[in-house]
Design a protein that fits this description.
The structure is a single chain. Helix 10 (260-303) crosses helix 12 (318-361). The protein is an alpha+beta fold and 411 residues long. It folds into 2 domains: 4-54 and 265-409, no CATH class; 94-230, no CATH class. It is elongated. Strands 2-3-10-5-9-6 form a 6-stranded mixed barrel. The protein has a two-stranded antiparallel ribbon with strand order 7-8. The protein is 53% helix and 19% strand. The protein starts with a helix and ends with a helix.
Length: 411
């Protein structure tokens, strides 16, 4: 039985006797592993970027409640109070839609005003493109911060101004609504007449939206505005375990309910499929490299046949020969995995750097497109080592089964 140190020394002889061939074999494995790391980390990065943009912890605990399309059931103050009274509901943030006209200097355009509570942005998971949202802790009336407004980027384009320049602008807003009439039985309805309410608001934030001209006004800024019904309500539950029970209760009331967590779950499924497809491309490159490694180990067996005969003649057993070749192939796989991680990481950083330069020149934001979980890096190194080990199994068994005299006579 050979000593462990002797086995390791013999297993690493390939770096001294055939350095170029061994290095190219390791590099081939590294290219395959690097391709896997590059492509899969790109998939992880895109998934992370998307989820960071559309989710916050509170938005995942919120339900979007809408009136049914039939129009039979309306979402009014009575229903909002019913939602708030449900068990495990922490808060409710309704949204009222009111037609509006907005003016800046001599320009006037149509928009839809969303009259909201400041909590609406927090529960929706929205982030301002520039500027900020309403201050939640200090109600506008108490802080003296009256007349503030958030707009979409479409509104900024309407007045031919950049989103950054829109912050601080004062827009004249005209709201169009119908007065509420209360019947003897306590029900409310809107009259046919339309009333205009004009006010000036300062833009404090811009939301990225290139489709709709929307403005957001704090309900505390227009306390005398009669609201008969709401277009939507955000219902925030205490924790994730209560999301489905509350959803079912609201559905039983006749309302349409949507949860952002459902979209996230579907998006994760799609991204997992994308990551698998991307990984398959890298695995193809790794298989090609594995064939090259098999060829290298097989050639090494042929070149060292007499050496194997001499080793057996001086007392080395079949298990020693087997371990020597398996160690050699596993070591090449491991080094290929490490070099692949270096190649994949470096390639990703270069690609990300070039992309961010282009984005900055085009007015976009810098971002990190690659996410590399530590467990994934360790997994692909182990995977590469296992591939190297398996590649060497057949040549190692052939080497171990060689008869001493036949090996010594081999030329």
């Amino acid at each position: 039985m050979m000593r462990t140190t002797d086995l390791l020394r013999l297993s690493t002889r390939m770096f001294k006797t055939r350095p170029l061939r061994t290095s190219l074999t390791i590099l081939g494995v590294g290219v395959g592993i690097g391709a896997i790391l590059f492509l899969v980390s790109l998939g992880y990065g895109m998934q992370t970027l998307l989820l960071e943009k559309i989710t916050t912890s509170e938005s995942l605990l919120s339900l979007d409640v809408n009136p049914p399309e039939s129009g039979i059931i309306h979402l009014g103050k009575k229903q909002i109070a019913a939602f708030a009274a449900l068990d495990h509901v922490k808060e409710v943030s309704p949204v009222a839609n009111i037609p509006a006209q907005i003016s800046l200097n001599e320009f006037t355009g149509d928009a839809l005003a969303n009259v909201i509570k400041p909590s609406y942005f927090r529960l929706s998971g929205a982030e301002p493109m520039v500027g900020r949202f309403f201050l939640e802790p200090d109600r506008l009336g108490g802080s003296g911060e009256k007349g503030k407004m958030v707009i979409t980027s479409t509104v900024a384009k309407l007045f031919n101004i950049k989103p950054g320049s829109a912050v601080g602008q004062k827009l004249s807003v005209t709201l169009f609504f119908s007065p509420i009439e209360e019947a003897a039985d306590g029900t409310t309805s809107t009259s046919g007449s339309v009333v205009e309410k004009r006010a000036e608001f300062e833009v404090i934030g811009v939301i990225e939206n290139n489709i709709s001209s929307l403005i957001y006004i704090d309900v505390g800024d227009v306390p005398d505005l009669p609201i008969a019904e709401y277009a939507q309500a955000k219902v925030r539950v205490e924790s994730m375990e209560f999301l489905d029970p509350v959803r079912e209760q609201v559905k039983e009331m006749g309302f349409s309910v949507f949860a952002l967590s459902d979209t996230i779950a579907e998006a994760n499924k799609i991204f997992k499929a994308i990551q698998v497809i991307l990984a398959l491309f890298g695995i193809v490159a790794l298989l090609v490299a594995a064939i090259g490694m098999f060829n290298t180990v097989t050639i090494a067996l042929l070149e060292r046949t007499q050496e194997i005969g001499i080793m057996k003649a001086i007392g080395a057993g079949a298990s020693d020969i087997l371990i020597m070749f398996l160690t050699e192939s596993a070591l090449m796989g491991f080094l290929g995995g490490v070099s692949g991680v270096i190649l994949g990481y470096t390639g990703g950083e270069i690609f990300n750097f070039i992309l961010n330069i282009l984005a900055s020149r085009l007015g976009g934001k810098s971002m990190n497109l690659f996410v590399r979980p530590l467990w994934f890096i360790m997994s692909i190194i182990i995977f590469s080592t296992v591939v190297g080990f398996l590649t060497g199994v057949l040549p190692a068994r052939r080497a171990a089964k060689l008869k001493t005299l036949e090996a010594l006579r081999y030329k």
